[in-house]
Hints:
The chain has 310 residues and is mainly alpha-helical. The protein has one domain. 79% of the residues lie in helices and 0% in strands. It has 13 helices and no strands. It has helices spanning 2-19, 25-43, 48-83, 90-98, 102-126, 133-146, 159-181, 186-209, 211-216, 222-226, 228-247, 258-277, 284-309. Helix 3 (48-83) crosses helix 4. The protein starts with a helix and ends with a helix.
Amino acid sequence: MMAEQEKDSRMKIAKWLKKSFPPIHLVAILPFLLGTFLAWRLHHTFTLSVFALGSLGAVLVIVSTCHTGEYFNYVKGEKAGRRFVNRFIRGASLIRAESLSQTVVLRTSVITIMLAGIIGLILQFGLETGPLTLILGGLGALSGFLYSTSPIRPIETSLGELIISACYGWLPAASAFYIQRGYIAPCIHWMALPIGLSIFNVILLNEFSDFYADVAVGKQTLLVRLGKDKGMVIYVLVSIFSWFCMVFPLHTGIPKKALYFHLPVIALSTFICFMMARRKYENPFVRELLCGLNIAVYLGTTAAYMLAFL
């Protein structure tokens, strides 16, 4: 009997972890590592307790964002799931398949964001990381929590993609640097441009996979508003602009060798643009491959800056 209960507990924990999407944590944690790394390289400053609590707070915000999205997207995802088979519609399939109630998902979202708030208080008043600590943390927490929350739901407006660009680009890097040093280095603003633009394209390309399901449930993402052809043009233009953003700020304190580390990233991005221009996104297999390469561009952009300062 005890063995069965233990097995059941392990299965519930596994379901909860799957619900929290652990792989996506790297997407926001890597820019956070970049900000921490820059504080160490530029000022030889690194406080382990600040880094540990800051990283935990960032992960809690991401978990809250994921679970909030699961809860508020469930009804629409359920409707879309009955009409379209799409592995990228994760909300409805996971709640249904993993037997996790909507109540559990919502409670987890609220609890994790409250814990993140407590960590923010400890950082600002306990470890004295600076008066902007709670403001920066609050921007990320509220943006993530409200992203899918009715009736606000920026996910269904053209602002959704821009919010993600800021929260997965500038905000984690700037926050990490700030809690270590008490100010934000100007070079971070420049580095955040190509990082933010690349995550914008990650979201935009993923919307190609969800396009017909989003149309079916009336979800007004940027791609639904523009259509696939215009969405493809926006993707290519954003990619080209991100390449220039990698080059122009090299006089702002960013090592010039950052360009050399960016070259493979630019080459990969060029390949994706070429495939998009040929409308290869209509092929499900190719589209999935491009989505994976697109994430590599985002991660590679962040990693290139770290290698340059290293």
